[in-house]
Amino acid sequence: MLNLLSTLLFLAPLTGAYALSPRAPVPGACMKTHLPSEQQYTLGYQTFCETFIGPDEKKTITEGNPLVATVTLTAHDDNKPLRWVYKVSVYDNTPLAPRYEITRDMCLEKFKSAVESDAAGGLGKAYCVVDGEGVTLAQGGVVKEKKGGQGGFGSVYWESRGRLDD
């Protein structure tokens, strides 16, 4: 019996059987959870796009005149209100002021792509997964779209993020 105990004690350091080592973070795991779930994020961009752009309307966005609004969502961790900003803006470095027309469908498509593709950085940047729950949370991000428009070339930015004072 003593031989068996000695053998087990000898092998324990080799197998790590007597101590647990900390687990490395899983890639794409959420470091914080005071964020909207993917469902809440979707509700937010749908509200934004449908409130500010009519079904058959073409909304004109110019540099210095973005389309921006804050939508109140529910945070995943504590179910408290979370103010989330949705913004469509234009940036250009030419002397002409570009104008871009966006539609409701464009708005819905671009904000959707932020959490369903790598357009805004993908897993770990624009969205993350709550470890142990499998719930996807939106972290915010920017989908940048290069455009040639009336009056110049530039980019349209489709941005979503938590409000800075929240």
What is the structural class?
alpha+beta
Helical segment count: 3
Output the helix-strand order.
HHEEEEHEEEE
Integer-rounded radius of gyration: 23 Å
Major sheet details: 4 strands, antiparallel
Number of domains: 1
What is the mean predicted local confidence, pLDDT? 82
How helix-rich are the residues, as a percent range? 25-40%
CA-CA gap between termini = 63 Å
Task: Describe the model.
With 166 residues, the chain is α+β, with helices and mostly antiparallel strands. Helix content is 25%, strand content 33%. It contains 3 helices and 8 strands, in the order ααββββαββββ. The protein has helices at residues 2-15, 38-52, 104-116; strands at 58-62, 67-74, 81-91, 99-103, 127-129, 136-138, 141-149, 152-162. The strands form 3 sheets. The chain has a 4-stranded antiparallel sheet with strand order 2-3-8-7, with helices on one face. A hairpin with a 2-residue loop joins β7 (141-149) and β8 (152-162). α2 (38-52) runs antiparallel to α3 (104-116). The longest helix has 15 residues, at 38-52. The protein is globular and about 50 Å long. The N and C termini lie far apart (63 Å).
